[in-house]
Design goal:
The structure is a single chain. With 327 residues, the chain is α+β, with helices and mostly antiparallel strands. The strands form three sheets. Strands 3, 4, 6, 7, 8, 9, 10, 11 and 13 form a nine-stranded mixed beta sheet that branches. It has a two-stranded antiparallel ribbon with strand order 1-2. A two-stranded antiparallel sheet has the order 5-12. Helix 7 crosses helix 9 (296-306). Helix content is 21%, strand content 15%. It is built from nine helices and 13 strands. It has a domain at 99-326. The longest helix is centred in the C-terminal third of the chain and has 11 residues, at 296-306. Residues 1-14, 29-45 and 90-97 have low confidence and may be disordered.
Length: 327
Amino acid sequence: MPNETQSSSPMPSVLRPATPNNPPSHQKSKQGAILGQGENTALTSPFIPPTGSVKPAPPPVKSKPTAFQVPKICPLCRTHHTGACATKQSTPPSSDAGKPATAQEILDKYKSGYAATDRVLPFTLMKDVTNDSLSFSEKKASQKHLDKVSNKKFALRHYTKSVDGPPTYNTINPNFELVNTGVKTLNRTQGSNTNEDDWNRLGNTAFTFFLLAIDGKVSERRFLASMTHYAEFDLEDPALLSSLGLDTAEFFASPDLLHEKNLSAVKAVKGPLSELKSLMIASSELQPIQLGIMHAAPLLEVIDTKFQGSLEIKIPGSVPVPRWIPV
């Protein structure tokens, strides 16, 4: 038997495929399949990643510093303060909450605190009745605009009718004052210019009414045909305004509101009487070059047209009459 010779070259190692580490059948676990061998075995993780995008929390909103406010006199409590007034006004009784207050209810609500020379309460009354529907512009004309009309005199006129000579009264009183003092009644009479709408929809019964005059010209109005006298007020005379108690009074200008259904859409202007000229020039929307060549009548027409051809100037409270002038 030949001797087996040992090869000097080692036998190359051959890799055998791995076999699963399966124990003999008698050693298999009685607790179930070995991990990885069961069917549909799912690995679960204690952490479930969120689905979708995660938005970071918004940064905290920084509060803005409150701007300084100048205290103003409040028409409700008659003291100076800023912000809303804590004083509450009583609501006039009404049998039907859906209906506007009657003229009598409005009179009863305000007559106890009313004074004929009060220049604030009429605005409060109107704001209450109209639910603050009117939006007032306070835009003034530039000095360049005013320089072009410096030679034009702006005034107010109140017309009246008197058969036997000049009127015997020397104060122009609003309808509220006349009813409150018993001169008139709430029932509309012949020749009266006030009706229920003025009381419970417009709230303008504590104002006196005037026409704008420029260099002695006034806009055409049908009622002027029967007027016999007028009182004129030079708004550029500070001494006159002071003597009449109007130096700090404000006015408001608007069309005749009686036929206006949507008060929030009405053009209205408000400001000191001493600034009426500036406010009316701003309302005209004319350029300085136009103002420089325009005469009083066409200028008045332009301003009147901006207020639908029925411009009225309203002053709160009673106004003394310097003198009556025949038409």
